[in-house]
């Protein structure tokens, strides 16, 4: 529904638009099970006389908050929520907090939570507190989240989930000492640290070791795993994914594979993340056959659905990067056999590498295939790598024969003998 934003709008028009907004809100709040018609059909029947800018089914037509939030116009967001008159709910709250935190305004996000009941009529409970803490910690504002939790401890006593979030937030921020300090306070306060918190600490330690001293990764990770066993905290698949990912980033693929084969000793089994990380690492190490076997193993384990267009593109990019264009083409063929429709990026990657290898015929065939599939590729100039250019044969130097040399030398001796 279009509504003018000019301050010169007549009062009568404001009144009509206010009534229209209330009618629309009432219609949206009706229980869907009480009417056989869908929400879209009811709106089309009840408001057929209204000129609308967007269809009723469009999310923007029933959510005026989103444009202002996406523009990071927080003053307009405040005005929209206030004018809603108690209609705003959990989704509005979640969207507002998410945008505030991502815009780098943690203090405003905390302030929003503190006055959400008074100013906006939103219910403030433990669920909303968890949401704010989670968003702050995910975006590196663990300090603000911890201060908020401690200041509201009398109203909302923190549980283990919130404490795990805080530890994870400090680890995301790369502040290992703060995470360990908070973990110590939790133990002294009678809390138990969960697997999520330990996985975050393990990941933080691994990243710091990769950055400063890769040779300490094994001993530091082993110490954290021992602490988990001491406190009775079970390992899960994410624990192994953290270790395998960091080992692969250090190009220790063999160690990662050994850990992969030992997961069952702790009752854990790989998921799609485990397989994808190992496949990428095997391809990066030019272990092509083992990478193909891991793809087959991933499918047989029931995670073939995770082999989407994005995953296959990542494999092809790695193979092209190590100049294995023929195998990249085989992976491309496998991608199509699995029902993934290749897009512009996949075709452009392979065509660019084929032209670089001076294989214009195969690149042209690939372009024609893309045209048949309806992929909107644009023709552009590709450069051939000088290493793959056909070199011109060098002209052979004429070598003087021994007889010619002797004749010339004899001629010089005869000429000199005349002066003797």
Automatic annotation (TrEMBL):
The keyword Phosphoprotein does not apply. Keywords: Repeat. One of its GO terms (cellular component) is mitochondrion. One of its GO terms (molecular function) is mRNA binding. GO terms for biological process: mitochondrion organization; RNA processing. Gene3D superfamilies: Tetratricopeptide repeat domain. PPR repeats lie at residues 159-193, 236-270, 308-342. InterPro entries: Mito_RNA_Proc_CCM1, PPR_rpt, TPR-like_helical_dom_sf. Belongs to the PPR family. P subfamily. This is Pentatricopeptide repeat superfamily protein. It comes from Prunus dulcis.
């Amino acid at each position: 529904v279009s509504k003018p934003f000019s301050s010169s709008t007549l009062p009568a028009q404001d009144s009509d638009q206010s009534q229209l907004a209330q009618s629309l809100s009432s219609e949206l709040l009706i229980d869907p099970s009480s009417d056989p018609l869908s929400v879209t059909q009811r709106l089309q029947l009840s408001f057929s006389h209204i000129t609308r800018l967007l269809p009723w089914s469009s999310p923007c037509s029933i959510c005026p908050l989103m444009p202002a939030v996406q523009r990071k116009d927080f003053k307009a967001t405040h005005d929209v929520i206030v004018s809603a008159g108690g209609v705003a709910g959990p989704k509005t709250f979640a969207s507002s907090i998410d945008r505030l935190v991502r815009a780098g305004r943690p203090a405003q996000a905390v302030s929003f939570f503190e006055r959400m009941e008074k100013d906006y009529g939103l219910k403030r409970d433990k669920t909303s507190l968890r949401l704010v803490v989670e968003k702050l910690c995910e975006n590196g504002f663990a300090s603000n989240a911890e201060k908020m939790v401690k200041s509201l401890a009398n109203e909302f006593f923190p549980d283990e989930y919130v404490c795990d979030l805080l530890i994870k937030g400090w680890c995301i921020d790369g502040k290992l000492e703060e995470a360990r300090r908070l973990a110590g306070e939790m133990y002294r306060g009678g809390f138990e640290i969960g697997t999520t918190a330990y996985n975050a600490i393990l990941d933080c330690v691994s990243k710091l070791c990769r950055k400063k001293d890769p040779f300490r990764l094994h001993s530091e990770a082993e110490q954290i795993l021992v602490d988990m066993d001491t406190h009775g905290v079970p390992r899960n698949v994410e624990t192994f994914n953290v270790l395998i990912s960091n080992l692969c980033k250090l190009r220790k693929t063999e160690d990662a594979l050994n850990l992969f084969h030992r997961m069952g000793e702790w009752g854990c089994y790989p998921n799609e993340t485990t397989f994808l990380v190992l496949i990428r690492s095997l391809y990066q190490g030019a272990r092509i056959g083992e990478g193909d076997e891991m793809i087959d193993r991933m499918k047989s384990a029931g995670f073939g659905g995770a082999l989407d267009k994005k995953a296959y593109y990542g494999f092809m990019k790695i193979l092209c990067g190590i100049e294995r264009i023929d195998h990249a083409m085989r992976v491309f063929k496998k991608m199509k056999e699995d029902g993934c429709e290749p897009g512009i990026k996949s075709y452009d990657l392979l065509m660019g590498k084929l032209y670089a290898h001076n294989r214009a015929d195969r690149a042209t065939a690939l372009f024609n295939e893309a045209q048949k599939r309806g992929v909107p590729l644009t023709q552009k100039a590709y450069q051939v790598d000088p290493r793959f250019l056909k070199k011109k044969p060098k002209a052979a130097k004429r070598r003087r024969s021994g007889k010619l040399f002797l004749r010339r030398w004899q001629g010089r001796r005869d000429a000199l003998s005349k002066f003797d």
